[in-house]
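Hi team,

As requested, here is the filled-out complex form for the magnesium ion run. I kept the field names the same as last time so the parser does not choke. Let me know if anything looks off before we queue the next batch.

— J.
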Amino acid sequence: HAAEAQRTDLMTITRHVLNEQGRHPESRGDFTILLSHIVLGCKFVASAVNKAGLAKLIGLAGDTNGEEQKKLDVLSNEVFVKALVSSGRTCVLVSEENEEAIFVDAPLRGKYCVCFDPLDGSSNIDCGVSIGTIFGIYMIKDKDNVTLDDVLQPGTDMLAAGYCMYGSSCTLVLSTGNGVNGFTLDPSLGEFILTHPNIKIPNRGKIYSVNEGNAKNWDAPTAKFVEKCKFPQDGSPSKSLRYIGSMVADVHRTLLYGGIFLYPADQKSPNGKLRVLYEVFPMSFLMEQAGGQAFTGKQRALELVPRKIHDRSPIFLGSYDDVEDIKALYASES
Ligand code: AHM
Ligand code: MG
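And here is what came back:
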């Protein structure tokens, strides 16, 4: 029997984005360049995350010249800020790690704004649970007059969004507004290869994902929804609970298997926990592009207009029909 021929015709992420750009003859490759800098940041962080535990062990083993190990989230932020600025294609950057937006100096200024969480879920690092980088990309309105308003736009204005998950493998999921594609880092090549073309989320899922420890503070629709997941009254099977506490991993599973991810408002945090610009918007964009929905409890998540760069919002996202259910509960409430 013939051995399977070695596949050498690989669809790398760069090739994929160049192909997509072919559909826009007016584009001059700026987006491809920007993306290649984001990809470089992801590879750098992936390698740092892989070494994180080891560096600590070596440190414990008595490294005396004691340069203190930089915290991974701080390091990741530096990596992405440098990668984005040096691309020459960005003008405003919003990072979860920086209180103020970063305005890129004129000589390196380009037309894109990038909002990102360089290392989300970093409380999970020490136990080896998956963490990730999340990003959303906008275009400025007027290159000679760049203001904060260029990033305080509704999510519907985003051009592209994605995340990179640093887990048992390193996976980058991206949408440029034309569906969702997943790429896995081949460590031997150092390239992201298209492994999950045209991701579509199932219309209904069997999983709900929420921090149930907050249940005593939930509002009625959220409480009712979760109750129905556990004790369905319509004869449907009860759902499974999966909650990692790392948004990228929880959303990635939701995207591939279907189901719903919730970070609702509660009495203690009336706007929930997750940040609009670099958590809620990118993940909502991906969900819609994959055929799912994202809802805040009041409206379509992407139609929010953030007032401040670190604004938060409650979020319910995932399979189309599961999100319909929570929308119905909020509608009957009001
Ligand atoms: P972080 O930005 O401080 O890492 O927090 C964000 C994380 C998300 O990854 C995750 O969905 C959420 O916090 C979990 O919050 P909780 O521990 O309240 O369930
Ligand atoms: Mg975060």
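Two things worth flagging: The pocket of AHM (ligand 1) is lined by residues 96, 120-123, 211, 245-247, 250, 273 (CB under 6 Å). The longest helix spans residues 30-60.

Thanks,
J.
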